[in-house]
Amino acid sequence: MLGTLTKMDIVSPVQTGNGSTLKESTDIDNTILKIIKSTLASSEDILISSFGKFQGKDKRERKGRNPGSGDEMTLPASRMVKFKCSGNCEMKVNGFK
Questions:
Q1: Rounded distance between C-alpha atoms, residue 44 and residue 17, angstroms
Q2: Model's pTM, two decimal places?
Q3: Tens digits of per-residue pLDDT, 34-61?
């Protein structure tokens, strides 16, 4: 597969794999994504065995520059998501196993 993985690229194999309708498979996908989002929003990490770990990370308020004008500005504190690939997944991505 080349390019970007879309939601339909995930929904289609779920539909094929368990014989469900497109709507049922989309609902499954949406439920899983909703669980992941709400878990990260509540500051909990998500570990998916043999795949990796999603972690929420707080970034402090910091100084920055407006790229258009060059003016200094303060960037507000924010929360970002980090992903750490598991060893098994990393080996698969790099063509081992």
A1: 30
A2: 0.71
A3: 999 999 989 899 999 999 999 999 999 9
CA-to-CA distance for 54 and 82, rounded, in angstroms? Answer: 6
The residues facing 56 across adjacent strands are 81
CB 14 within 8 A of CB 32: no
Using DSSP's 3-state secondary structure scheme, residue 47 falls into strand
Q: Residue 67: is it exposed, middle or buried by C-beta count within 10 angstroms (0-12/13-18/19+)? A: exposed
> What stretches of 1-97 adopt beta strand conformation (E)?
46-48, 52-59, 62-65, 72-75, 78-85
Q: How many CB atoms lie within 10 A of CB 37?
A: 12
